[in-house]
Design a protein that fits this description.
The chain has one domain: P-loop containing nucleotide triphosphate hydrolases (Rossmann fold, 3-Layer(aba) Sandwich). The protein contains 7 helices and 9 strands, in the order βαβββαββαβαβααβα. It binds adenosine-5'-diphosphate and guanosine-5'-monophosphate. The site of adenosine-5'-diphosphate has 15 residues, from α1, α5 and α7.
């Protein structure tokens, strides 16, 4: 059975991590691409599981060494996808799951075209997104503002991708997402 690449994209605060954690629990067959980032660790996040949390100079050295298949600056921090992980996955026909911003999605589409299945998750509104970011309580005010500004730009691209899921009610959204992923995996 050939490998698959499923790429999830959503403005920060939409509920992507919430939905992905459920998907990862239901689908241990999906190989999660652990990105590198220079942003601070949030409470509960685990190095090597959620991200590899690394320093800016380490990240920049890894860029220079060609260790990322794609990387981007998002909300003033670096994020990047391991080239080694993707190469291994393609060689071994893994079903790979990625969480990328729109720049990362564009890069993956350029590299893999229709083989990268992109699912965009949208919030019910910007106001609701702002509410979720505040309720999550993980980010200071200036970071929330930056994420909301970025969300407006990302939402303008919501129809450019392969699939769209609305995260209004979390259980309903998860049902849609799971069904979609299972259709792609078939
Ligand atoms: P993201 O990974 O997209 O940045 P999170 O999964 O961290 O977002 O969710 C942001 C906040 O919104 C969290 O506090 C989460 O519990 C909450 N949340 C997620 N989905 C919903 C939903 N459908 N309705 C209300 N709150 C939600
Ligand atoms: P967060 O800081 O909320 O975990 O993620 C911020 C943004 O960075 C999200 O839009 C997420 O999809 C994106 N992101 C996470 N990892 C990567 C990556 O490896 N590459 C790119 N381009 N974006 C990423």
């Amino acid at each position: 059975m050939p490998g698959k690449m499923i790429v999830i994209c959503a403005p920060s605060g939409t509920g992507k991590s919430t939905l992905l954690n459920r998907l990862k629990a239901d689908h241990p067959d999906l190989m999660w691409s652990v990105s590198c980032t220079t942003r601070p660790t949030r409470t509960g996040e685990v190095h090597g599981k959620d991200y590899y949390f690394i320093k800016v100079d380490t990240f920049e050295k890894q860029i220079a060494d060609g260790e990322f298949i794609e990387w981007a600056k998002v909300h003033s921090n670096y994020y990047g996808t391991s080239k080694r992980f993707v190469d291994e996955g393609l060689k071994n026909n893994w079903k790979m799951l990625f969480d990328l911003d729109v720049q990362g999605v564009d890069a993956m589409k350029k590299l893999y075209g229709a083989d990268a299945h992109v699912i965009f998750i949208e919030p019910p509104s910007i106001e609701e997104l702002e509410k979720r970011l505040r309720l999550r309580g993980t980010d200071p005010e200036h970071v929330i503002s930056e994420r909301i500004n970025n969300a407006r730009k990302e939402l303008a691209r919501k129809d450019d991708f392969d699939h769209l899921v609305l995260n209004d009610d979390v259980d309903r959204a998860y049902k849609d997402l799971k069904a979609l992923v299972e259709r792609i995996l078939k």
